[in-house]
Amino acid sequence: MSTTNSKLTRVADNIRILSAAMVEKAKSGHPGGAMGGADFITVLFTEFLRYDPDNMAYPYRDRFFLDPGHMSPMLYSTLALAGHYSTEDLQSLRQWGSVTPGHPEVDVMRGVENTSGPLGQGHAMALGAAIAERFMAARFGEWMAHKTYAYISDVRIIQKPIFYTMACLHMNYFSCAIL
Questions:
Q1: pLDDT tens digits along 78-120
Q2: How many beta carbons lie within 10 A of that of residue 4, not counting itself?
Q3: Among 30, 93, 113, 142, whose Cα sits 20 to 30 Å from the Cα of 17?
């Protein structure tokens, strides 16, 4: 295993451990999805996602939309490793008034692009972001272009009307949206 792969594996393992610990401490939620998505989010944030960790509101950043809100421990753990959440923040998952609610609420300065709620909400928000990106690029130039990444789960894919609409629009209009 190369050094890079070894480091990425350690990062993903840390995300898994933090996610499980957050859910256990909260005594609420389920860590399976967050643990299963750790490799994906590690590679996305280290190899593909264009953003400035020192300026999370960088206007030309790529956008990451988390559709399954119950997988928020995965996102919070990743952003904690980047310095945007403290250990205390992670320990207060799902607690009233916490900056780490059970389903994420938008907080761009910490790296949370969308609020996750009802099934398919993340799909719709990602599509809206992709439409806005294409509009801005067409109007002001490709220098404004960025990618929109959406993490979806099997439950969202089962919601066929939502998925088929997204897939159709994506294939026909938006090369900047990656599901």
A1: 999 999 999 999 999 999 999 999 999 999 999 999 998 776 7
A2: 10
A3: 113
